[in-house]
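Lab meeting, item 3. Inverse folding demo.
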């Protein structure tokens, strides 16, 4: 098992999207790479500096990191700064936050391929994970609990892994 942290705009949709794939063993929404410990959702929405992020525990043998990142890039606008869909603010920035240096080569390979595809520099951060604080319980699996909740990801994308 390995872990990667993916910021893809609103974490509700990112979590729901990633949960569908074989090899994703566990996901958790939270707040990453901000300046303070244990922020509340209200603080994050008031520009605390944290990114809405999904912690993804995955089986590298079933779902290699490169493929997982290809899925991630399917549901973000990698050129958008601090915005995904109608959500705008620093907490909606995109980022790939790693905990193992061994992940970096694969991250960079996918990143370069996506940059070539886009024909422009990407606005996706690639950084070591500085910190991660789980979001409040009501944010966990939010779109499962609230199927009509807003999401920047088109609903058809939630059944790609079926």
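The presenter then showed the designed sequence:
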């Amino acid at each position: 098992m390995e872990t990667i942290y993916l910021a893809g705009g609103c974490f509700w949709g990112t979590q729901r999207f990633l949960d569908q794939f074989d090899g994703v063993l566990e996901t958790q929404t939270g707040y990453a790479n901000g300046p303070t410990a244990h922020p509340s959702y209200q603080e994050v929405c008031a520009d605390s500096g944290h990114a809405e992020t999904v912690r993804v525990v995955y089986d590298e043998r079933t779902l290699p990191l490169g493929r997982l990142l290809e899925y991630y890039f399917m549901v973000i606008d990698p050129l958008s700064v601090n915005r995904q869909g109608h959500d705008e603010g620093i907490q909606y920035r995109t980022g790939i936050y790693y905990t193992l240096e061994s992940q970096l080569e694969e991250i960079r390979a996918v990143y370069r391929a996506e940059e070539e595809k886009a024909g422009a520099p990407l606005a996706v951060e690639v950084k070591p994970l500085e910190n991660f604080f789980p979001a409040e319980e009501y944010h966990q699996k939010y779109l499962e609990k609230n199927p009509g909740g807003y999401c920047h990801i088109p609903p058809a994308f939630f059944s790609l892994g079926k």
